[in-house]
Automatic annotation (TrEMBL), chains A, B:
Protein name: Lysosomal membrane ascorbate-dependent ferrireductase CYB561A3
Gene: CYB561A3
Entry keyword Plastid: no
Subunit structure: Homodimer.
Native organism: Sparus aurata (Gilthead sea bream)
Compartments where located: Late endosome membrane; Lysosome membrane
Role: Transmembrane reductase that uses ascorbate as an electron donor in the cytoplasm and transfers electrons across membranes to reduce iron cations Fe(3+) into Fe(2+) in the lumen of the late endosome and lysosome. Reduced iron can then be extruded from the late endosome and lysosome to the cytoplasm by divalent metal-specific transporters. It is therefore most probably involved in endosomal and lysosomal cellular iron homeostasis.
Length: 300, 300
């Protein structure tokens, strides 16, 4: 029913080709069905289309917001733990616990979110996909390593201080997010980086990978908010002269709550970018197919 | 570039027409551009298509899961508060507080989620849209009323017991979710129920309405999880003989944590249903347009 019109070769090799008007339904079901449509609309839109330019501008506004909110989250969580919680150490004390929020927010939220939207940047679309695929995997690996170190920080702190692990709802959700992230990274590497992976397996995996990507971010945000809320109740009991209770909203409470609001705002912006099909990376060359294995892309 | 083939009249008037194979990009950007595609693919798929049947079966599995998880959430939150928290009253005591989790989970999560997926049920697609539009609005209104009563329960309990309101991160996220839900309901009524609303305004509002629908559910889940986590830490301090501390994972803690897991699972299933464009309700009659005002639909 839909006629596939291949995009002109120049469009796949220049960085000025931003086919933002295409409708990509990859995440919605059969990607085979969606592919002809992508090339069709792409070939039919000219670079000077006002709607295309508007879409590019909208993307970069969202992306700038994503970068600024991510940076604000990292700054806030560092300032909170260094200024009000005494700083950092790795000695089993409360200072070791402070690595936990910093590494989880930086790894499982900010780096993860930025890694997820990497493919959406129109500036990268005219280039070979491989470096961006490797960059996506590398950012996600770094996010994963930070998250695992963040979890080790709290487990070690609990063990040294004879506090049970894994009893709170926060910990149940957080460990689920990290376990799913581990599975996502392993299946992502097997599915999209190993050259021996069958095209059919990539086709099957891609919508699942995209869907789980968003859901893991959602779980991370749920875990972070419940963790910050719990920490503020633990820390701000007001039972000594040095601290006011949480209910008085002292500066530390305002900082912690603001960090939570920033994390939620960052998550919403990332999920908005991920859900907008206009901003999905188009296929670089129709003849390669969407799921060209790594070695093929390497030779692009 | 895309040829719009109107669907046959029989397809718009029978309950056996489930055009599940269409690709609806309404939530992704310009709906005008997406519309021809919907009718095209719809007309091209026959009711006996294996992929269509598979899609219908998948939907009903997800929908059954959504109903079961929603019911399990309501049962769990009621059992938790009646068996372990002493039951319910409206007298300013802790028993009044117990209405808060019950009404928020039932209203802002379960009823809200079920109201959101109402349009996705294929059985409703062959029928006049108006009753389903009114049912969607009515379920959302009931969800809204329960949420407001749930918030009143905790504000009143705090005021009677001289506990400050609105200081925790949980309360900040929860009140934001409820405020956005209020705005969503008001703009939804103005945009989609009032007959005087311009078609152009509906076209503008629909993707925003769909997007905010999912985001409000996400915020509700974040608020619920942080609230359950906070409540379990407050309630299970283990400082009296009657209760064990949360860290010992007594039965109440397992019940509360399980409720949290069920809420997250329910939210993921609802978001999965909402994000699958194959399951979006197709236009009942192409000549009416997607955004036919209420009175037009009334006369269908």
């Amino acid at each position: 029913m839909q006629r596939a019109v291949p995009s002109p070769p120049s469009c796949s090799s220049t960085s000025h080709c931003f086919p933002l008007n295409h409708r990509h339904t990859a995440a919605c079901g059969s990607e085979t069905a969606a592919q002809p449509q992508k090339h069709e609309v792409r070939a039919g839109s000219s670079p000077s289309d006002p709607s295309r330019m508007r879409s590019i501008v909208c993307f970069y506004i969202c992306y700038a917001l994503c970068l600024c909110l991510g940076l604000a989250c990292v700054v806030c969580v560092c300032v909170w733990n260094s200024r009000w919680r005494g700083g950092f150490a790795w000695d089993g004390s409360a200072l070791q616990f402070n690595w936990h929020p910093v590494l989880m927010v930086t790894g499982l939220v900010v780096l993860y979110g930025n890694g997820a939207v990497l493919y959406r940047i129109p500036l990268t679309w005219g280039h070979n996909k491989l470096p961006w695929k490797l960059a996506h995997a590398a950012v996600m690996l770094l996010a994963f390593v930070l998250s695992v170190v963040g979890i080790c920080a709290v487990f070690d702190f609990h063990n040294v201080n004879h506090i049970p692990n894994m009893y709170s709802l926060h910990s149940w959700i957080g460990i689920t997010a990290t376990a799913l992230f581990t599975a996502q990274w392993v299946f992502g590497m097997i599915g999209f980086l190993l050259p021996c992976t069958q095209i059919a397996l990539r086709k099957f995996l891609k919508p699942i990978h995209v869907w789980f990507g968003s859901m893991i971010l959602m779980l991370s945000i749920v875990a972070c908010i419940s963790g910050i809320n719990e920490k503020l109740f633990f820390a701000l009991k007001g039972n000594n002269n040095a601290s006011q209770p949480y209910s008085n909203l002292p500066p530390e409470a305002v900082m912690g709550n603001s960090l939570g609001v920033l994390i939620v705002a960052f998550g919403l912006v990332v999920l908005k970018i991920l859900s907008n099909h206009e901003w999905m990376r188009p296929d670089s060359r129709p003849e390669d197919g969407v799921y060209a294995p790594l070695l093929q892309e390497d030779n692009d």
